[in-house]
Amino acid sequence: MQSIKNYFVLAFLISTLFACEKEDDNQPSIKDNQIAALLSSPEMLNINNYLLKIESDIWRNFMPPIDSNGSALMAQVVLSERNQRTLNNSVQLEKVYLINQNELWSKTFDSSDSSSPYQVSGMVRNGPTWGPNIKVDLVCEFSFGGKNYRLLAKDQDIFATY
Fold first, then answer.
1. φ, ψ at 66 (rounded to 5°)
2. What is the CATH number of domain 26-161?
3. What b/e sequence results for 34-45 when a residue is b if at least 16 CB atoms lie within 10 Å of its CB, and e otherwise?
4. Buried (b) or exposed (e) across 56-74, using 16+ Cβ within 10 A?
5. Which of 77, 74, 159, 161 has its CA nearest to residue 125?
6. Which of 31, 77, 121, 127 has the most crowded Cβ, counting Cβ within 10 A?
7. pTM, entire model
8. 80 in the Ramachandran plot: left (φ > 0), alpha (ψ -120 to 50) or beta?
9. What is the pLDDT of residues 95-134, one digit of tens each?
């Protein structure tokens, strides 16, 4: 009976020892790796002679009757074909990533509009309460001709509307 108790105590101590294994502080986190990968996205892409670039407007609403702390962040992203070649609905906006130093927020587009033959625009709402008056990096994930791509817009201002 004593040997069974000793066995369970030893098994408990060993399992506790392995369960408490410390993470190596020198290893980058998954989020850090994801941010680095997003920031390596190009600012312009040439896909089959379609020259694609994104622009954005990012803001928070402080107009009455909104709470004095302001609304959650909103962003409009416009993906444009810079040579004004018709996109023929071949672009589908998928997701937005906003990077504020070491913070990352992402969301699929709430809505999109492809009424312009050279542009596709999309909107996201209910973002974080960063800013206003700070700069963030924005990455737009989209599909074009059935393949996924990402474009980066660096140092985008978060504005306030009053």
1. -60, 145
2. 2.60.40
3. ebeebeebeeeb
4. bebbbbeeeeeeeebbebb
5. 74
6. 77
7. 0.81
8. beta
9. 999 999 999 999 999 999 998 999 999 999 999 999 999 9
Mean pLDDT over the full length of the chain: 88
- Residues of the chain above pLDDT 70, percent: 83
One-letter amino acid at 70 equals G
Give the type of residue at 90.
Answer: S
**Domain residue spans in the chain?**
26-161
Q: Dig out the tokens for 84 from the structure.
A: 């004004």
Instruction: Tell me the CB-side half-sphere exposure of residue 158, using CA atoms within 13 A.
Output: 23
Quote the tokens at residue 72.
């959650």
The residue written with tokens 């954005």 in the block is 56
